[in-house]
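Practice problem: Apple domain-containing protein
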Amino acid sequence: MEGLKIPFLFSSLFSILVVSNAVDTITKTHSTAGSNTIVSSGGSFEMGFFSLGNSQNTYLGIWYKKISPKTVVWVANREIPLIDSWGVLTIINPGIIALVNSTGSVIWSPNVTGSTQDPVAQLMESGNLVVKDANDTSEHFLWQSFDYPCNTLLPGMKLGKSFVMGLERHLSSWKSSDDPAPGEFTNWCDPQGYPQNILSRGSVDLFRTGPWNVVSGFVLSHDGVVEHWTWIDRTQEWILYLTGPTDNCDKYKLCGPNGSCNVRNLPSCGCLSKFVPRNQTEWGNRDWSNGCVRRTTLDCKSGDGFLKYSQYKMPDTRSSWFDKNMTLRECEMSCLENCSCMAYTNLDIRGGGNGCLLWFGELIDMREYSEDGPDIYIRMASSELVQQVGLNGKKRKIVPVTLAILIALLLLVLHSMFCCNGYMSPKYAIDGLFSVKSDVFSIGVLVLEIVSGKKNRGFYHPGHSLNLLGHAWRLYEEGKSLELIDETLWDLRYQTEMLRSIHVGLLCVQESLEDRPSMSSIVLMLGNEATLPRAKQPGFFTARNVLQPSSSSSKEATTSANEITITLSSAR
Ligand SMILES: *[C@@H]1O[C@H](CO)[C@@H](O)[C@H](O)[C@H]1NC(C)=O
Ligand SMILES: *[C@@H]1O[C@H](CO)[C@@H](O)[C@H](O)[C@H]1NC(C)=O
Ligand SMILES: *[C@@H]1O[C@H](CO)[C@@H](O)[C@H](O)[C@H]1NC(C)=O
Ligand SMILES: *[C@@H]1O[C@H](CO)[C@@H](O)[C@H](O)[C@H]1NC(C)=O
Ligand SMILES: *[C@@H]1O[C@H](CO)[C@@H](O)[C@H](O)[C@H]1NC(C)=O
Ligand SMILES: *[C@@H]1O[C@H](CO)[C@@H](O)[C@H](O)[C@H]1NC(C)=O
Ligand SMILES: *[C@@H]1O[C@H](CO)[C@@H](O)[C@H](O)[C@H]1NC(C)=O
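Answer key — structure tokens:
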């Protein structure tokens, strides 16, 4: 393409240019040259020729029409300026969009995919310059400038690989403030594991940020600073929202593997809690590159657990795996099941948290934040796990849930043996079976209340109008029973027991009497490994008709559930 000569009739070209104003498209009959520009339909962006500083070098570029000083967001001929300030963007035969210099050489031309007899180039309101067939009104572009970012990421642009086009889209800094040729800094999206953006100088990684949600703009300055701009609708302007790297702790991998950086400490590098320097001598000499190791080695076979680290920058995700649908507890389980999984976290901390991110191998490039950081759960040997959980300001020890339930059952059985006959309403006493089975129902309620730490009465969930039984049933049906378990009882080591308890609880509250187990089988069910029948829909599961038939005993059960919990916790 380069060196192709095209004869020009400058005078006739000029006349075409003069009549055209406020158009957003270059066509066969409309080019742009000199001080003529094209403007996007809504007037946000303008494309034309510009020079920088005192230089004569002229470039074809796109800038914000309404922002001054002129802020260039994209440059076509970054590396090959027009040296005598004259050029034209036009369509040459056989249907090629080209930037042509004054001696008729094509110095830049977009590589269109597919061919067309009649291409046009249109500057869209988003700032995207697109090449398409003149007759094509769809969004089918033969080429678009958004696939070839310079130093600015506009809303709607994506970084990373486009597998269809075989492109790797990244930001590259300008060489200097008056030379838009690619400089030494790049900002690119690393798709290994969970995608993250990395600022590099040549092949050296400097700074890592999470994946960007592109409703804002990013500019990579010529001196290697990523500026995050955000659009303010009310004032109709961009404001500088964040820049990075900002401090010492932003330096990639500064504190080595398993290390953590905190700008308020001196020196800033430390080991994560329960980790120690790999080499104390080196660490003492401020050589942090070898990082830290766990002070107690993991023992995957005999059981590890996880310790919560709050407000940390997520470690490098290059050796991670993620699933957007998993809950935090499912996430914990899948991490525990794989001995090489070192940590996990919620992918999206909005709305209570969802999604799962797992790390395999080293934890690299972590830093402490004073606020606004996610929680990360790091794998620890079980001896490092402290079983203290804050509850109402008090500390209490976790009782394995089955034990609590068995004790509750015992109390209930005793209760029904010694005091219930006289206590129950005559209506229930008529039918012996019904009375026993309604106690089974109460046990079910009690079990679910203990496991969930919530009362059935007055149970409220923002997502539906079910009571606790309905809620438990719903989670069970979705295969998410683990979500029911009370935070203070939550302990992965007892998850099978907990799931079993919920299952048994649901069997006890079945709608039909025949589906409820007998008293004696409840104890067996909780204890042994026999497969339980699938629970069907429970009785009385909406908030309105809560437990009408067994109201007396269930009321009793609700209170005792609470008492039992309290008794057990203070007994330890
Ligand atoms: C136009 O471009 C060609 C090829 O790059 C170059 O040889 C020629 O000097 C340029 N003409 C001017 C006036 O810059
Ligand atoms: C067009 O493709 C060629 C070969 O792949 C490449 O050298 C050239 O830089 C591309 N031009 C543009 C404007 O992307
Ligand atoms: C574009 O449409 C016009 C009118 O519909 C038609 O005459 C022309 O041949 C079409 N051009 C191409 C390249 O398909
Ligand atoms: C710790 O590092 C120092 C200096 O690199 C080295 O001489 C020493 O052998 C290392 N110690 C251990 C235990 O690896
Ligand atoms: C980080 O900690 C883990 C667990 O102790 C250890 O296996 C790994 O080797 C550590 N990384 C380095 C570089 O010391
Ligand atoms: C995630 O959940 C959504 C909606 O619940 C579903 O459409 C999608 O298929 C799920 N994705 C995976 C990978 O399971
Ligand atoms: C653990 O996870 C890694 C990384 O996803 C995978 O390669 C490995 O096969 C898994 N191991 C087991 C036992 O599932």
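Discussion: DSSP finds eleven helices and 34 strands in the chain. Students who identified this feature from the tokens alone can consider the problem solved.
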